[in-house]
Design goal:
Rossmann fold; binds N-carbamoyl-L-aspartate; 2 domains; alpha/beta; 36% helix
Length: 337
């Protein structure tokens, strides 16, 4: 894939080679993200960071990634504070905002909205999550995390057994991650969800057609037993007709240290795209796992900065300029990645 100037809308754009190319550039971003080195390679460039749905880590890590490369960030964070609330079309908003920015990251509640927006944009657009459809940068950071966690255990992504748990119907991070994993070899997917929130058939067909194995289960304990990775997700309550309906599915699968000790293989990696719902009626990933060294959730969030820096650097074609533009930071830093 030629990254230069391209939109990132769906993981369908990637092949295995392009994913590995992104990971290689992400590795080279560690000195900047860990505050050992500074670069101003994007000095003067402006990111339009447009989040029309709630977001903490995706919005802030895209902004930080751009800042760490030396650029400035402009944010729009709510539909009600933008002209979309006055009836402006995506076409007009895209024409206007792409005149003010060098790149745009957009999140919106409607599937396909970011793609529609990108068609009118004069600059590259990255999908920060479009409804229940896709979340490509999350899938890349999840897969990058999987690759690093497995490398520490002497394994690779190939031949992995991953158990995906929770709302697999509406979870866009799950959709993108599953599709990205199909690019690798011999993956065993165990899909653990309530009957009504199963991964939809088009995804399952695609997984099976790429010669991977799918097992479906409605039982957490049975499903996680042989997994290398457990990827837990939140009930996507904002996608349900009512909060009463969503609450039927909350708290059905709760992973805690006791269950982990009894049912998982040693060193099974625990992941979650976050936010984990820590309210008593959900508590899908218990705080008693916080000291478990296999809990990778905050390594995922750290890795998100590396992946987003890599995407920016590839799309704006500055990877080659990084070494020459780099110098040590001026301040004492105790921070380690
Ligand atoms: C995810 C999302 O927004 O799809 N969050 C994130 O970006 N890290 C998952 C979620 O909200 O449950």
């Amino acid at each position: 894939m030629d990254f230069k100037g391209s939109h990132i809308l769906s993981v369908d754009q990637f092949d295995r080679h392009s994913v590995e190319a992104i990971f290689k550039v992400a590795d080279s971003m560690i000195p900047y993200a860990s505050r050992q080195s500074v670069t101003r390679v994007l000095e003067g460039a402006i990111l339009g960071n447009m989040f029309f749905e709630p977001s903490t880590r995706t919005r802030v890590s895209f902004g930080c990634a751009w800042n760490l490369l030396g650029g400035e960030v402009r944010e729009t964070t709510e539909i009600k504070s933008s002209a979309i609330a006055k009836g402006e079309s995506f076409y007009d908003t895209a024409r206007v905002l792409s005149g003010y920015s060098d790149m745009i990251v957009m999140r919106h509640q409607t599937a396909g909205s970011v793609e529609e927006f990108s068609r009118a944009s004069r600059v590259p657009v990255i999908n920060g999550g479009d409804g229940a459809n896709e979340h490509p940068s999350q899938a890349l950071l999840d897969l990058y995390t999987i690759s690093r966690e497995m490398a520490h255990r002497g394994q690779s992504i190939d031949n992995l057994h991953i158990a995906l748990v929770g709302d697999l119907k509406f979870g866009r991070a799950v959709h993108s991650l599953c599709m990205l994993l199909t690019l690798f070899d011999n993956i065993h997917f165990t899909l653990i969800s309530p009957e009504e929130l199963k991964l939809e058939p088009q995804y399952i067909e695609k997984i099976k057609s790429s010669a991977h194995v799918v097992t479906e289960s409605t039982e957490l304990q049975a499903g996680i037993q042989d997994a290398d990775i457990i990827y837990v997700t939140r009930t996507q309550e904002e996608r349900f007709a009512s909060s009463e309906e969503a609450s039927r599915y909350k708290g059905l699968f709760r992973l805690n240290q006791a269950i982990y000790t009894e049912f998982c293989k040693p060193n099974t990696v625990i992941m979650h795209p976050l936010p984990r719902d820590s309210r008593a009626d959900a508590n899908e990933l218990d705080n008693d796992l916080n000291e478990n060294p296999n809990l990778a959730i905050f390594r995922q969030t750290d890795n998100g900065v590396l992946i987003r820096m890599a995407l920016f650097a590839l799309i704006l074609d500055v990877v080659e300029q990084l070494p020459a533009s780099s110098r040590p930071v001026n301040w004492y830093t105790a921070r380690r990645f």
